[in-house]
Write a structure and sequence with these properties.
Elements (H helix, E strand, L loop, with lengths): L1 E8 L2 E8 L2 H4 L11 E9 L6 E3 L1 H20 L14 E7 L2 E6 L19 E6 H16 L23 H7 L6 H10 L19 E5 L29 E2 L2 H5 L8 H18 L10 E8 L4 E6 L2 H5 L6 H4 L14 E8 L5 E5 L17 H18 L10 E7 L5 E6 L2 H5 L6 H9 L13 E7 L5 E5 L5
Antiparallel strand pairs: 1-2, 2-3, 3-4, 5-6, 6-7, 8-9, 8-11, 10-11, 10-12, 12-13, 14-15, 14-16, 16-17
């Protein structure tokens, strides 16, 4: 049986494909199947359309290089494991304090083949920023925490002597929030000789973690197992007839179906972002990123959240989540509705990140009817270009392309727009799209008009002032 495992972060996704060892799988029929034979590994990094791919040798080398380089970055002590190009397929090079080069060498030719330089492809080089680097580290964390995937592969780290560690406390505070996981915390601790090399175990839920969801229970309320919202946090009060039982998010997810359709997840991802982004007003003062797991109903209602890291549990009052939980008094109660799961990060630099908890099983598609007649879309393409070009003025301050999906109806009126990369979120106010949308619907975050067929386009605002409008070819 072919098995896939995906470990997803906003800037990195690891996809592993393989098989079960039938001699071992027979012992675990009640459990999730074990991926014990790795056939293919893919590493997707934000900003790059093509993944890094390879077999088991590539994946093991990637894991060793990532762990070794993370240790080196935190301690500032050179770690040969991160730069061993003679025996490793993957290595890292530091460019500066916030840029890191990931280098993938071609695999050695098999025995009997020409081993001259001409028989090897040139190495692949990818530059990462520190956030991308530690998203890659955390993806490796998720893999090591998964005991049903390559369980015999373990993380081996050697401690660096404390007196050689030169990283400042400021660097530690800046780097650790992006690396709150199993192997990344081990890397950080070992880098400063704080703990012995660890044995990796799956993270266990902590009893004091902040967890909250609101459901109308068909059974008597479970007060002992419930973890209520912190006292003093303002929340909407349901009516007496619809007083909800506050239940653990994981318990809720165990009793209802899970939404996994990629297209539906993509649409819900936007709804979550549009709810939380304008409500997050206290964006300063965070010492570490606050990471939560959200439960979201099919209509976009946030029905529960659970802190993933300690800081998120302690600083939930810095987020709008308690106030965004749905109110059963204003909405039909949750019973057996399917629930989608999302990972939401309130970052220290004030940027909100929202992504599906398990990533996308396949590339999502735009939902709703579409205009497909080539003659009509050609005319709408030109009309959209002229409209945006006439209203886009000023000197851009961004340095990278802003990419959007923009949908229009048969009359060329904007019906929906969606940022496709982080800089498009950060600099959307420098484009005319929010004003165009607001003039029609009265809000920048109104639900898209999907009641009629739409034509979809990719619109790119370039730093040099050029504009590109092309027919939509799907999410990349």
């Amino acid at each position: 049986m072919n098995i896939q495992r995906k470990y997803s972060l906003p800037n990195c996704t690891l996809l592993l494909e393989g098989l079960s060892d039938v001699t071992r799988a027979a012992q675990f029929q009640e459990m999730r199947p074990e991926l014990s034979i790795l056939v293919n590994a893919e590493c997707y990094l934000s900003g790059y359309n093509q993944p890094l791919t390879g077999g088991r040798e590539f994946f093991e080398s990637l894991v060793r290089a990532v762990s070794g380089y993370a240790q080196e970055f935190l301690s500032t002590v050179p770690n040969p494991q991160a730069h061993n190009q003679e025996s490793e397929l993957v290595e890292f090079q530091k460019i500066d304090g916030n840029r890191h080069r990931l280098i993938v060498h071609s695999e050695n030719a098999p025995e009997g083949f020409d081993r001259s330089n001409n028989s090897k492809r040139p190495p692949i080089e990818i530059d990462l920023n520190t956030v991308q680097l530690f998203d890659l580290v955390e993806a490796v964390d998720q893999f090591f925490a998964d005991t049903q995937t390559l369980p015999e592969l373990s993380l081996e780290l050697q401690p660096v002597t404390r007196r050689y560690g030169g990283a400042s406390q400021a660097v530690i505070r800046q780097a650790i929030p992006a690396a709150v996981g199993v192997s990344s915390l081990a890397v950080a601790a070992i880098a400063f000789n704080l703990i012995p090399p660890p044995q990796i175990r799956p993270p266990q839920p902590k009893p004091d973690e902040q967890s909250s969801s609101t459901t109308k229970s068909l059974n008597p309320p479970v007060s002992a197992a419930a973890t209520p919202i912190e006292a003093g946090t303002p929340t909407a009060t349901p009516t007496a007839d619809e007083k909800p039982a506050v239940k653990d998010l994981e318990a809720l997810l165990n009793t209802v179906p899970e939404i996994t359709d990629p297209s539906q997840l993509r649409a819900l991802n936007r709804q979550v972002y549009n709810q939380v982004h304008p409500a997050w007003t206290r964006r300063s003062g965070l010492q570490q990123d606050l990471i939560y797991r959200l439960g979201v109903a099919a209509d976009g209602a946030i029905v529960g959240y659970k802190a993933v890291n300690k800081e998120a549990n302690q600083e939930v009052g810095q987020t709008p989540l308690p106030n965004l939980l749905y109110n059963p008094a204003n909405r039909a109660p949750i019973s057996n509705e399917p629930i989608a799961q999302f990972r939401i990060v309130f970052t220290t630099n004030g940027v909100l990140q929202v992504s599906p908890w398990r990533g996308y099983a396949k590339t999502p598609e735009v939902v709703g009817a579409k205009i497909t007649d080539s003659n009509i879309t050609k005319g709408l393409n030109k009309k959209l270009y002229n409209t945006v070009r006439q209203t886009w003025s000023g000197t851009p301050t961004f340095t990278r392309d802003l990419k959007y999906r923009v949908a229009v109806n048969k009359d060329g009126v904007i019906a929906d727009y969606e940022p496709l990369n982080q800089v498009a979120f950060d600099y959307f106010r420098e484009t005319p799209l929010p004003k165009m949308f607001n003039d029609i619907y009265g809000s920048n975050v109104a639900a898209p008009n999907n009641k009629e067929p739409l034509a979809h386009f990719q619109v790119i605002f370039k730093p040099n002032g050029k504009l590109e409008v092309t027919p939509w070819k799907g999410y990349q």
